[in-house]
Amino acid sequence: MSPLALALVLASALLHVFWNTLVKGCGDKLSLAWLTTIAGNAVLLPALLLWRLYSGDAPLAGIGAEVWLWAALSGLCEALYVAWLFRAYAEADLSVVYPVSRGAAPVVTLLLAGALVGDSVTPEQVAAVMVVVAGTLCVGLSSRSNRNPHEPRRGYEPRRGGIALSLATGCAIAGYHLADRRAVSLSPAPDPLDYLCLMHLFMSLFVTLWAWRLRPDWRGLCAEWTRRRRDVWLVAACTPLAYYLIVLALREGNVVLITAARNVGILFSTLAGALVLRERVTRARGWGSGLIVAGLAGMALLRG
Question: Nearest to residue 198, comparing CAs of 289, 97, 67?
Answer without folding.
Answer: 67
